[in-house]
Amino acid sequence: MSGPGVWAGLAESAFLADIDLPGRDLMPRIAKLVRGFAVGFGIGMVAATACLVLVLVPYTLATGRGGEGIAGLFAVALTLRDSPAGGLGITIERLVYATLTNGAFFVAFVAAATVFTGRQLPACVTVAGKVRWRLLAAGLALSTLVLGPLIAGSRLLSAEATAVPLLAISPHGAGRIAYALSTLLLIPSAAAEELIFRGWLVRQTAAFSRRPAILVGASAVIFSALHLDASWDGFITRALMGAGFAYMTLRLGGIEFSTGAHATNNILIVLFIQPLTPQSPGAASDVSAGSLLADAALIGGYVLITEAVVRVAPLRRWAGVRLEELTRPVPKVLPAR
């Protein structure tokens, strides 16, 4: 982006090209947003509940509690929630449960909420007209280069000698492979979160303000707050991650790259730091100089790999990104006669 510079130029992202700032229609626009949120939340809850039953029914039947009806379903749901981490079966079941229910809620929410703003779900995904799968793959690959050293360093410097989940989940190679493959479910799970926090929320924010700090900051703070982590360390880390994901979305014109980065974070944590539990992924501790340094390295790495895709032509072509997908076209000014 030229002219105002990269940061200020985020306001000119092609991802926001179809959104105008409010004039006299500020209050009607707020009313549409509130109605859209209410309807989207309701429809999202219905979709999530349907998927929850879809997951629990076969599991309830398999455990021999099918004859208990609703009470059996409820008991199995509590088992999924409260069972300690460590078992391969329960961990994979949780992955399926989280992916289907969260994904159903977020997708249904955004699909319903966008109706009230006169737009469609695809506009919250990408400006390219179709999903750029190579860009998602680039997000997975490049973010691994950033997160890999950080996770390795955190394990080496940690005072707690916890077992690597990938190795502790099963004594057999087949079980470990099954666990590793099951974490691929975290990709659609991350896509669902990116859809609502970056695809929908950033665009809703842009309907009221084009200041990059507000566009990025609102997404970052809300994203972190809704993870309900009471520790400041966890809140700061997730907020900075959310800021990085919002930067990626605005800079590259869609949520594909941020989905890859988001999924990579969750996958590496579940594989090497903490097995999937109702509170994971993401193990947090007190704020320290080391954690702040790691956070700075994380956000710096996110900006670096994003700019690499934007600025390095071979990498940009490999990721399937076109220049016109980065910034909205500047209106042509006709010469004076």
Structural class: mainly alpha
Number of helices: 13
Give the C-alpha Rg: 21 Å
Mass-distribution shape:
globular
Summarize the helix and strand pattern as letters: HHHHHHHHHHHHH
Number of domains: 2
Strand content: under 5%
Describe the structure.
The radius of gyration is 21 Å and the shape is globular. With 337 residues, the chain is mainly alpha-helical. The protein contains 13 helices and no strands. The protein folds into 2 domains: 24-124, no CATH class; 128-329, no CATH class. The longest helix has 37 residues, at 26-62. α5 (133-157) runs parallel beside α11 (256-272). The protein has helices spanning 6-9, 26-62, 70-82, 88-113, 133-157, 165-168, 173-182, 186-206, 212-225, 232-252, 256-272, 289-311, 313-318.
In short:
The protein contains 13 helices and no strands. With 337 residues, it is an all-alpha fold.
Which helices and strands, and how do they pair?
Blueprint: H1 6-9, H2 26-62, H3 70-82, H4 88-113, H5 133-157, H6 165-168, H7 173-182, H8 186-206, H9 212-225, H10 232-252, H11 256-272, H12 289-311, H13 313-318
Helix pairs in contact: 2-3, 2-4, 4-7, 4-8, 5-11, 5-12, 8-9, 8-10, 8-11, 9-10, 10-11, 10-12
Q: Which properties best describe this structure?
A:
mainly alpha; single chain; 66% helix; disordered C terminus; 337 residues
